[in-house]
Amino acid sequence: MRLTGKGVKVGVIDTGIDYNHPDLSRSYVKGYDVVDKDDDPMESKIRGKAQTFHGTHVAGIIAANGRVKGVAPEAELYIYRALGPEGQGSTAFILEAIERAIDDEVDVLNLSLGSPINGPDWPTSLALDKATEAGIITVTSNGNSGPDLWSVGSPGTSSKAISVGASTPPLKAPQIRVSDGEENIGLHAIQGSKPWDLKRSNLLVDGHLGMPEDLMSVEGKVVLIERGGIPIKAKLENAKEAGAKAVLLMNNIPGTFAAGVEEPVAFTAATIDHHDGVRLREWIEQNGEDAMIETKYVEETDHMALFSSRGPVTQTWDIKPDVVAPGVDIDSTVPNGYMALNGTSMAAPHIAGAAALLKQAKPEWGPEQVKAALMNTAVPLVSENGERYPPFVQGSGRVDIEAAVRSDTLVYPGALSFGVWDGDPKQQESQRLEKELTIENHGNEKRTYRFDVPASLGTGLKCKCQCLLQSNRVNRRT
């Protein structure tokens, strides 16, 4: 069967949609504007301000069917506008949108949004748990506050939703070259900005803190701006207004940092670490109007995005994200056109689209089974130095939808957390904690399954068991 998501209802809670876009008009079925209380979920249009486009971009990743092809191009889009001008909204709006999606009996629900609250009991997280219990495959972004641990935000903390982190797809990663013989400078994506796409040498100037008075002579130039003083969004908007070509945002303390803006800014920008920023400042001082920089592109694939939020969840120590998907330099639909954006907001709809394909292929599967198939078959990612990312960074890994569709063994839940142990678990032989795993054999023959926690992991946990399972049978093991 050719999988396109045909007949699968996918709900999107976001800033709305440009349903007149030629790539989305065939996919759009129904919508509701929670903000304005009407049946028109068109993106916000406010006089004197740019039209919102986040929801249209997300919807295109899921089900665009034109020049751009979404993951599930024949899925049916149900759009709920819960975020108004500048992408802002309330918890009440999001909860109402979730309730409407349940009433509309959508099969999959995507929320590329969030708050900085890391906790399992935030209302939006609990609402997604309830939606999942109602039979909806719920998908949410894990957040853009990485790379520190504990940076996941609600509703990414939902225990039953599929929380999605961002990886880099196969792409040519930009690096800055200032002169022969010197090491190139690596650039990091800014969530919510346009990815770096400069093609030739450009003049670099110092924009200091990015105040309007710092940017009087930057038209057509790349501007080096230091972090701090004013919000990052203001720095980018000031540079764009002054006619700059792009911004390099340098850290104001040693090391790298992940940057992002809540409402996307259609402007090219990237971050660099403090050491590299100092190098570039010295280059500007030494060369003045001859301080040219050149962009080189290096093949990269399947690394974690620096901005992608990490787990665990407070109180429960649940592992988040559950999986990761491409979230860097993602080209999709926006009102009246197309744009590439970065963020876990772009990663989550890849998984919503993948869930729609799985639902088409396996209509009898419920949310837990779809989540298990995606997690069980995910590909673990390794860093640039060859070390596997921890589960709190990547969950099970980058989703492989073809492998998920072919999967005939399901084990769930996809992750187990035993909370915090008191003292050294190796010395606590009398301490016993039990967790139940469900195993489903959807193959055509009986199979023996064995489970073990390798001692090399250093967990102190003991788990050695096996079971024989006939074809098309379910078993549960503690």
SSE blueprint and pairings:
Elements: E1 9-14, E2 28-33, H1 54-63, E3 76-81, H2 91-103, E4 108-111, H3 123-133, E5 137-141, E6 162-167, E7 171-177, E8 185-186, E9 188-194, E10 202-206, E11 222-226, H4 232-241, E12 246-250, E13 259-272, H5 274-287, E14 292-300, E15 323-326, E16 330-334, E17 337-341, H6 344-361, H7 367-376, H8 391-394, H9 401-406, E18 409-412, E19 437-441, E20 447-452, E21 464-469, E22 473-477
Parallel strand pairs: 1-3, 1-4, 2-3, 4-5, 5-6, 6-15, 9-13, 10-11, 11-12, 12-13
Antiparallel strand pairs: 7-8, 7-14, 10-14, 16-17, 18-19, 19-22, 20-21
Can you describe this structure?
The protein has 478 residues and is of the alpha/beta class. It has three domains: 9-168 and 305-407, Peptidase S8/S53 domain (Rossmann fold); 171-300, 3-Layer(bba) Sandwich (Glucose Oxidase, domain 1), CATH 3.50.30.30; 425-477, no CATH class. The chain is built from nine helices and 22 strands. It has helices at residues 54-63, 91-103, 123-133, 232-241, 274-287, 344-361, 367-376, 391-394, 401-406, and strands spanning 9-14, 28-33, 76-81, 108-111, 137-141, 162-167, 171-177, 185-186, 188-194, 202-206, 222-226, 246-250, 259-272, 292-300, 323-326, 330-334, 337-341, 409-412, 437-441, 447-452, 464-469, 473-477. The strands form five sheets. Strands 8-7-14-10-11-12-13-9 form an eight-stranded mixed beta sheet. Strands 2-3-1-4-5-6-15 form a seven-stranded parallel beta sheet, with helices on both faces. A three-stranded antiparallel beta sheet has the order 18-19-22. A hairpin with a 7-residue loop joins strand 7 and strand 8 (185-186). The longest helix has 18 residues, at 344-361. The radius of gyration is 23 Å and the shape is globular. The model has no long low-confidence stretch (mean pLDDT 90).
